Amino acid sequence: MSAWSQFTAIVKRDLLLEWRARELVLGMLVMTLLTLLVFNFAFDLSGVQRAASGSGALWVAIVFATLLGWGRAVALDRQEGAWEGLLLSPVERPVIFIAKLVSMLVFVTIVELVALLVLAVLFALPVLQPGVLAVVGLGTLGLCTLGTLFAAMTANVRSREVLLPALLFPLAVPVVIGAVRATTLELNGFTGDAAPWQNLLGGFAALFFALGALTFGSVTEE
Amino acid sequence: MATVTNTIRRPATAAWLSVLAALSFLLVALSVVLIFLYAPRDVAQGEVQRLFYLHLPTAWLSYLSFFIIFVSSILYLVRRHARWDRLARSAAELGFIFTTLVLLTGSIWGRPIWGTWWTWDARLTTTLVLWFIYLGYFLLRAYVADPERGARYAAVLGIVGFVDIPIIHMSVRWWRTLHPQPIVVRSEGPAMPPEMLVTVIVTLVAFCILHVFLLAVKYRIETTRDEVIELRGALEQHG
After folding, report:
1. How many domains does chain B divide into?
2. Which residues span the domain enclosing B132?
3. B-chain residue closest to A166, CA distance
4. Across B98-115, average pLDDT
5. How far apart are CA B211 and CA B215, in angstroms?
6. Measured by CB atoms within 10 angstroms of the end CB, which terminus of chain A is less buried, N or C?
7. End-to-end distance of chain A based on CA atoms, in angstroms?
8. Which residue has the higher pLDDT, B50 or A112?
9. ∠ at Cα B137 (B134, B141), nearest 5°?
10. Domain locations in chain A?
11. For testing the chain A interface, which of B75, B124, B138, B164 should be mutated: the one with the most A CBs within 10 Å?
């Protein structure tokens, strides 16, 4: 099998399983919506400053949903030895890395689209513009590249719920800072000012995509 | 059947380690004398400024320790020899302690000077994030049951973490400067008089040597620990 067909096989498998069970995306979705709801009570999401609070709420919701998603995805993969089976098959490790990344990106994107709609409708924020969508895309990519790597590390660990955030949060600080800043600027219409942050997000995603693909092999030697 | 092929290292301390111990003791003692008796009292900040002499080396060493983790991690993943993992473990422990010290000394120093225990300026925030990365490193090692796997994972974290640190610093700095803050924080005053400069340099050298000494001691402890584990395993197999 070529790398491409291996890649599509893994992605198709993940998507098919999720389509049948639908628990991953639904869980992430519920988490995201509840987070946005709670944030509305914690911060003023309806006032004049709502662009800043709104983007902060959005990104906190995305981060938590991503963590939840990864935790569930890893747990699902461990059932029936599916993860071990995947590692035993003659697929190149970087291919597995990219495939897992893409599957998670699909799930997170679905959740984010709903979250953005909620923000647009309930909190009257102009989120459905190309600048904001670009930032959300880049930030998610950065989060998920790190998440894929650390999810593989925490696959066989007892306290995955503690360890995955402990690893991901500090390293994802640039993504959170950049994404929140850029989203706020885009929402307020300062597209030019958002450009350096978008470059940071893009650079981060590219760098850790490469680094993740390189080191994924070391993580998944079994 | 596994056989123990390592010879057990004798507990006698190597000569160079004793020299290093004596040297670090003397240098640190010298720095203490310099800090309290030789360096002049800072005009603006008073006696509390003397914390700076401790603050600077610990800051330097906390980042240097992570660099050691970075290099050892790469070497471990490439060579797979246990010594590199031991070095990474030892440097991590030291680095974590030094990072904690930086944050504490900085905070204590900052309280009378800035009027606050903490401020989210770029350097402090980056150091705090570094502290959390160290914490994650230890949690990873603690929670992963298999030591070989733990060593591999920690090595990957060491590499990814170190590469991320300059990016974290850059993003935090932009975060703080693209929206300028009303208070400009300066941790050093104007150009230092020579007595202060001498004190800084001596203290920095003293702490570097102390760091090397502590790292060597910790490394030996880890080596012995690994040997004990190996022996215990061999005993259980034969036993």
Report:
1. 1
2. 49-181+195-232
3. B136
4. 90
5. 6
6. C
7. 22
8. A112
9. 145
10. 3-219
11. B164
Which residues in chain A have their CB less than 8 angstroms from residue B148's CB?
Answer: none
Query: What are the percentages of helix, strand and coil residues in chain A, rounded to 5?
Result: 85, 0, 15
The percent of residues in chain A predicted with pLDDT above 70, rounded, is 99
B32-41 — which CB contacts under 8 Å span 24+ positions? B34/B198, B34/B199, B34/B202, B34/B203, B35/B199, B35/B203, B38/B195, B38/B198, B38/B199, B39/B195, B39/B196, B39/B198, B39/B199, B40/B193, B40/B195, B40/B196
Q: Identify whether B170 is part of a domain.
A: yes
pLDDT at B181: 40
Q: Residue B130: its chain A contacts at CB < 8 A?
A: 170
Q: Is residue B132 part of a domain?
A: yes
pLDDT tens-place string over residues B132-170: 999 999 999 999 888 899 999 999 999 999 999 999 988
Q: In the predicted model, what is the mean pLDDT of residues B122-141?
A: 92
pTM of the model: 0.88
Tell me which chain A residues have a C-beta less than 8 angstroms from the C-beta of B144: 153, 156-157
| A174/B164 CB distance under 8 A | yes
CB-based contact B24:B202 (threshold 8 Å): no
Closest in A158, A166, A208 to B135, CB measured: A166
Nearest to A103 by CA among A179, A172, A7, A206: A7
What DSSP designation does B35 have? I
**B156 — contact with chain A (CB < 8 Å)?**
yes
